Amino acid sequence: MRILRNLALLFTALLLYVAGMLFLYPRPADTTDPAVFAGDGAQLDYCDLPTLYGGGLTAADIPKAFTPGCGWQRWPLPILAACTEPLAPGVVDLRGLWRSVTEGVDHVERIEQCGNRTVITAAGIIHDFLTDGTLSNGSRDIEPPGCMNTWASIDWREDVMHFHPFGLPYTIVTREMQQDQLVWHYPRLGEVRMERICRIPEEHRHRPG
Q1: pLDDT, tens digit (0-9, with 9 covering 90-100), for 16-62
Q2: Can you give the pTM of this predicted structure?
Q3: Three-state SS for 188?
Q4: pLDDT tens-place string over residues 58-94
Q5: Residue 201: strand, helix, or coil
Q6: What span, in angstroms and rounded, lies between the C-alpha atoms of 66 and 154?
Q7: Largest CA distance in the chain
Q8: d(CA 73, CA 57)
Q9: Which domains does the chain have, with CATH numbers?
C-alpha cells in the first residue's frame, strides 16, 4: 500500500508540474515587429511569393515573431516578407497559402520560409522557428483558445518537416510536399491534405472569439 501511495503522490506531482509548464510558465520576451499587426494580411495575394535572390535581409536580421495574447484575431502581415536569403540546403519549399481539401477539416495556413527559418500562421497562432533541431531555436508559442504553452524543436528528415514536443526524440506533427499538395499530419486530425490558394477566404479572415 505504501508503494502505491508513493506512486500516486509521484504521479500527482508530475501532473501538477506538467500543468504548471503548460499554463503557468512565463512567456518569452515578445520580439515581434509591431508592424506585423499594423495591416491586414488577409488582403494580400499569396501566389505572389517573395524572390529569394540573396543580397538583402537574412533570416537572422528579422526579429522572431510570437503569437500575441491568446491568439490573433485578424491575419497579421507576413513576418519574412523582406527576407531574401535563399533556402538552406535540405529545406523543402513549402511557401504559400494552403487550404485543406480533406473532408471534415476546414483549415487555412500560411507558410513563409527563408534560409533555415519557417513561419507558420494559422488559426490564431504564429509558429516562428529554425529547422535546426534545437529547442532553443524551435517553436515557442501559446495555443488558443486555452492559452496553453507549447514548445517544439523542428528538423528536416528525408524532405519531411518533423515537430518534436519539448525537444523530445519522437515526432507528433509533420509537414511535407506530395506532388502539388501540402500534407500535414496532426494527432487530433490525422492526415490533412491541402492545396495552394492565392487569397484568404472570406470566412477565414477573422478568427472567432
Answers
A1: 655 555 666 788 889 999 999 999 999 999 999 999 999 999 999 99
A2: 0.91
A3: coil
A4: 999 999 999 999 899 999 999 999 999 999 999 999 9
A5: coil
A6: 16
A7: 69
A8: 28
A9: 30-204 (2.40.128)
